[in-house]
Amino acid sequence: MYDPSFFGNFDVASLILSAFVLFFFGLILYLRREDRREGYPLEDDLTGQLEASAGLFFAASPKTFILPHGEGVLSKPNNHRESQEVAALRTARSAGSPLEPTGDPMLAGVGPGAFAQRAHKPDLMFHGHTKIAPLRVAGDYSIDGVDPRGMKVVGADGVAAGVVTDIWVDRAEYLVRYLELAVTPTGPAPPTAIKTVLVPMTMAVVKKASKTVVVDAVLGSQFAHAPTLANPDQITFYEEERVTAYFGGGYLYATPARSEPLI
Predict the structure, then answer these.
(1) pLDDT above 90: residue 237
(2) 147 and 195 share one domain
(3) What's the pLDDT tens digit per position in 72-114?
């Protein structure tokens, strides 16, 4: 039966506001649980010891992902901890303090040169072919414009490091990802090369007029210390991390002056 005393005092706006508050609280709880799926377990910044569990409300329950190309399954979060040793020391005995590289800063793996322990397998396309490959493998691709193959590569100091011998393309996104460089002691022709390295295309500038490729991230002598590939015709996730980290770290560590303040 209709009761005017109830409906007359029923506030629809209060009901909507209460429902919104409850929904928003549940949304925040869900997001806080999900953002703890990657990068955990938590570790103490100073001792490296595992921190206590975040509890029921802020600890994501494990979720299993089916990997492509028959590579099995992966559950997150898990108890996997990276065993990577960092060649650096803390500048202060406090959490969050900066790290100062020890030894060669270009190989310390800290700062802009830091890298993740990614999988030792290449990135694959839908049909199983490697996504990133040199043109000698991806024969159905070509360069529309200036072809840097055969050009001399110089560092930030203008010193020649070698010659571009091939171009690595992203066959899924139609982009040039890396330039393959035959490193030589004085930078002449490839037959005297001492090693072959990849240079990220995003850190290289092709000079058409002078037929040179300028990589201002590192010095000419530092190309010889860049990471190499286990397979000359493919690059793994881990190797991509190492290559990009090495040249990225050069913007801060290639010379002592780069790591000092401007003023």
Answers:
(1) yes
(2) yes
(3) 898 887 777 777 778 888 888 888 888 888 888 888 888 889 8
Read off the pLDDT of each residue in 152-157 and give the average, rounded to a whole number. 95
Same domain for 252 and 209?
yes
Indicate if 231 and 198 belong to the same structural domain. yes
Q: What are phi and psi of 174, to 5 degrees?
A: 55, 50
C-alpha span between 148 and 210 (Å, rounded):
11
Token pair of 149 as six digits: 């193959």
Number of folded domains that form the chain: 3
Within this chain, do residues 141 and 249 fall inside the same structural domain, yes or no?
A: yes
- Residue 38 is given by DSSP the state S
Per-residue exposure over 65-96, b if at least 16 CB sit within 10 Å of its own CB, e if not:
eeeeeeeeeeeebeeeeeeeeeebeeeeeeee
